[in-house]
Amino acid sequence: MEVLTDFVTDDYLREFEVKYNDEIANSNGKPNDETVFQYAWCLTRSRLLSDVKKGVMFLEQLLASCKTDQAHKRDYLYYLAVGYTRMKDFTVARKYIKSLLQLEPGNRQAQELEKAIKSEMETEALKGAAMAGGGLLAAGALVALGMALLKKK
User: Fold this and answer.
1) Start-to-end Cα distance in the chain
2) Cα–Cα distance between 36 and 19 in angstroms, integer?
3) Where are the transmembrane segments (predicted)?
4) Alpha carbons 52 and 60: distance in angstroms, whole number
5) Does residue 90 contact residue 76 with C-beta atoms inside 8 Å?
6) What is the pLDDT of residues 81-129, one digit of tens each?
7) How many CA atoms lie within 13 A of 126 on its CB side?
8) DSSP string for residues in 73-120
């Protein structure tokens, strides 16, 4: 899914960071929610894990303060699921995408993201199993080598 594999450019990220910081400087430290969302959106699409974490933090703050606007809530939930998927925290990602699907059961984009999250989970599980299997194979080879050396003596 493109939203999980596409990265924002450094220039684009910098543009929204500057806008965010300018609003902080010019509005008593409180940028408007749209600016925070745009910056968070860019951060969750960064190549850097630290940026993704920062974006998720902003989105969680926005979601916590969003009481009535369903469109904004939908966007926050969606990009929280994206951010957590990029951080490989699939449990939390699934929690957010399920919340979005409760809000909008027919949302195709959310349904596709839910499938992509499940696919990412399976891929990571296979990688983990392969690494564990490789570790066991290496340990077995060392034991066999040790036994062979002991027999020579």
Assistant:
1) 58
2) 9
3) 128-150
4) 12
5) no
6) 999 999 999 999 999 999 999 999 999 999 999 999 999 888 877 666 5
7) 6
8) HHHHHHHHHHHHHHTT-HHHHHHHHHHHHHH-TT-HHHHHHHHHHHHH
Q: Which two tokens stand for residue 127?
A: 């990688």
**Exposure b/e, 94-104, CB count within 10 A at least 16 = b:** bebbebbbeeb
What is the set of domains in the chain, with CATH numbers?
2-152 (1.25.40.10)
Interatomic CA distance for residues 37 and 59, integer angstroms: 7
- The Cα 153–Cα 141 span in angstroms is 19
Cα–Cα dist 146/125, whole Å: 31
The 10s digit of each residue's pLDDT in 37-91 is: 999 999 999 999 999 999 999 999 999 999 888 999 999 999 999 999 999 999 9
Q: Which long-range contacts (CB under 8 A, 24 or more apart) does 59-63 make?
A: 59/83, 61/36, 62/33, 62/36, 62/37
Distance of CA 132 to the CA centre of its chain: 24
